[in-house]
Amino acid sequence: MRITFILLLLFCNFLVYTQELPPIQNYAPNDYGAGTQNWAISQSNEKFIYVANNEGLLEFNGAQWKLHPSPNGTLIRSVHVVDDLIYTGCYMEFGYWKRNEFGDLDYFSLLGQLDEDLIEDEQFWNILEYEKWLLFQTLDRIYIYNTEDRTFDILPSKTVRAKIFNVEGTIYFQKDNEGIFRIENGKSVLVSNDPVIKSNIIIGVFAIDKELLILTESSDFYYLNSEGIKRWDTEMSKEMASINVYSSLRLNDGSFILGTISNGIYHLDSKGRIIRKINQEKGLSNNTVLTIFEDAENNLWLGLDNGISSIDLDSPFNEYVDKIGKLGVVYASIVFDNKLYLGTNQGLFYKKLNEEGDFEFIENTIGQVWSLRSIDNALFCGHNEGTFIIKDDQAKQVSNFPGTWDLKIIAENPNLILQGNYSGLSVLEKLNDEWRFRNKIEGFDISSRFVELIEENQILVNHEYKGIFNISVDKDLKRVLNIQEETSKGIGSSLVSYNGNPLYTTNNGVFKYDRNQKKFTLDTLLTGKLFNEDEGIIGVLNADNKANRLWGFTESNIIYVTPGKFNNEPQAVRIPVPNHFRRDLGVPGFESITPLSDRLYLIGISNGYITLDLDKIKPQEYTININSISKEFYNHPSDRIPIDGGNEIEYEENNLNFSYA
Question: Which ranges constitute the DSSP H helices of 155-273?
Fold first, then answer.
């Protein structure tokens, strides 16, 4: 079995391609209870999401999906919300939905407002809002609806792909084999009949520096102005040479999203440079992107050929997920010599910092990595097999004493390093500029995962279940002179040094070491910040002493604490995380967080890592919307009541049910 495993690793070359991506939430047809294809997306003032689906109008309140069947049983192709009305278009039908007094959506057709019949088999693919008008587009015509006097004008517009664009107040559309037009005084006016425009399907029209930027189905960009048309060659021109684009959107930040037929989305900056590529392999539920929508919180919604995906582009988190399992669980990380190193249960990996590319495996490090430390301008790796010094992609073993949990430089003697091992404590020594194993400290054989030096000959060791050991050693660090044991104050404890103070943390609170009394006492201020009535710290604390931040993890939050600005009371910031997200944050009790810069952190997870950008953390705002209200009386059927207030209820009808989101 061991030979097979090693051969497999050699065959795979241990290359792991990395791209850090924002969080992606996928919704399968089984999740939202409707058809596979989703053609258009819009959002209401209440921030509900509405989706034009094969089986009807989907409504998402942030917690639950609800399907409103199509008014005539056909596919809904388009949706657009204006104030409290939800306009939709489908096969041979279009109109709007309005919420009634009980909170339900009722449908109202607009066909009765037309002076002429629809064309046979006409479908409404697009709805565009412009001032007081709504434009409903089919493959043959554009229906211009005046919402004030409820009248229609009809503009012939035969096209292969129904696309209509509002560019800085001007409406553009393409006519098949004729060119691109704009609407002016209710009429179509030719803008360009250049052969490039006539021979390509236009997917997007944008305004750039007083010029029109045209995106075609073949993923080519062209500038269009009074002098003619000119190709815009960008970084992605070669990348996307053989890719067909079906949908596009310019985001509020000026960047572009291109939705493709078979390769997910491409995110480009305003200069045409590729920011990221996200496809099914990277996390989408499907590669065919039928529609793109940016909501009020700048989340990106994708209507797919099979499902719906939501991407939080503004999230403080980016994630790298190793879907094929080459990295494994990340237990340790460090930035050293402009390289990012990851220590996992599979070994040690590295790549150049801030560059996309492959994580490369460092030979001779197969197995569990516990820690990575920068000491004496060298990178030390605490490993199941002992201790290694890492130089670029080379690992040199300097100690084969099993199971190095952690390493601490001895300040009073910088030629010595204290190690915490599976079976006690040991010492590394630097001789002739070479680090080597010197000795085990005799007289203490308990696993020493958490180690802190109080002074040169005084060592604190924490065992997760047995408690704290205050150990006195001789001046040569070769044998134990005395051990004072402090029984555990809780299960799953840990030990960390923050601001020069050893902190002992359990599920009962945070305890600070009192150097005068030589014991731990409860730190009420830190405990109050890291624990509350609902939840406390689960797992270990991590200290970033350079930035003066103390990190902890709860069931639903990542917390960091900093010193108070004007008094001794620390300040705490709680960063909410979903439960499924929290469960991925590595093995409980082995949480790892490492600074990549002053405001950017890397957190190890069970299948890769996430990065956390503190500058992107926003205050959470919560809004409650009442969906429906009903009253009950004993065993009588429930009775719906209006949700807009003004209701009088008999005293015996005091059993009220509220549905909200």
Answer: 195-199, 236-239
pLDDT confidence tier of residue 17, bands split at 50, 70 and 90: very low
Q: Which of 116, 115, 118 is nearest to 94 (CA)?
A: 118
Residue 14 has pLDDT above 60, yes or no: no
pLDDT top residue among 357 and 121: 121
Say if residue 44 is in the same domain as residue 124. Answer: yes
Q: What is the 3-state secondary structure (H, E, C) of 380-407?
A: EEEECCEEEEEECCEEEEEECCCCEEEE
Answer whether residue 420 is part of any domain: no
Q: What is the pLDDT of residues 466-498, one digit of tens each?
A: 889 999 999 999 999 999 998 766 566 889 999
Taking the C-alpha atoms of residue 67 and residue 105, their distance in angstroms, rounded to an integer, is 11
What are φ and ψ of residue 419, in 5° steps? -115, 140
Q: List pLDDT tens digits, range 497-530.
A: 999 999 999 888 999 999 888 899 999 999 999 9
b/e string for 325-335 if b means 16 or more Cβ within 10 A? ebbbbbbbbbb
> For residue 34, what are the domain limits?
24-138
Q: Structural domain tally of the chain? A: 3
Per DSSP (E only), the strands in 168-237 are 170-175, 179-184, 187-192, 202-208, 211-216, 221-225, 228-232
42 within domain boundaries: yes
- Asked if residue 642 is part of any domain, the answer here is yes
**Pairing state of beta strands 76-82 and 339-344?**
unpaired
The total number of residues shown for the chain amounts to 661
Q: What letter does residue 605 receive in the DSSP assignment?
A: E
- Fill in the amino acid letter for 114: L
pLDDT tens column, 44-59? 999 999 999 999 999 9
Please choose, from the candidates 351, 341, 430, the residue with its C-alpha nearest in 3D space to the C-alpha of residue 382.
Answer: 341
Cβ-proximal residues to 501 (8 Å cutoff; 6+ apart), any chain: 512, 513
Give the residues across from 158 on adjacent strands.
none
Calpha distance 589→582 (Å, rounded): 13
Q: Are 39 and 52 in contact (CB under 8 A)?
A: yes
Beta carbons of 146 and 140 less than 8 angstroms apart: no
Amino acid at site 311: I
66 and 116: one domain? Answer: yes
CA distances to 332, 370, 553 from 593, rounded to whole Å, are: 8, 13, 10
